[in-house]
Amino acid sequence: MSTSIYLTAVMYPAPGKAEEIKSRLNTMIPTVHDTEPTTLQYEIYTSKTPEGDDVVIAHETYANQAAIDSHSQTDLLKDFQKFMAEEGTFKQPPLIYFAEKYGGFRR
Question: What is the 3-state secondary structure (H, E, C) of 69-98?
Fold first, then answer.
């Protein structure tokens, strides 16, 4: 069984905040890629709610718990977490899901 840990964060930006959230997340990608070899996947997606509101989704895969712990201690993530905590950034708190792979495939 794989020890990889999968994280999905579903974020509901406040009106006018979607572009800033996406930009901040996108800016983190090169640093995470270059400095965190046990972060196996770090992808940002966008969507809309049925009402047309923006949704930002992060899919992340970590080699193990130590990889998540290491990522959580970076200044990059701490700065983003401060931004996330600012009033008016989100319509509701982000939903964070940690999962283990159950089945399926990826090409």
Answer: HHHHCCHHHHHHHHHHHCCCCEEEEEEEEE
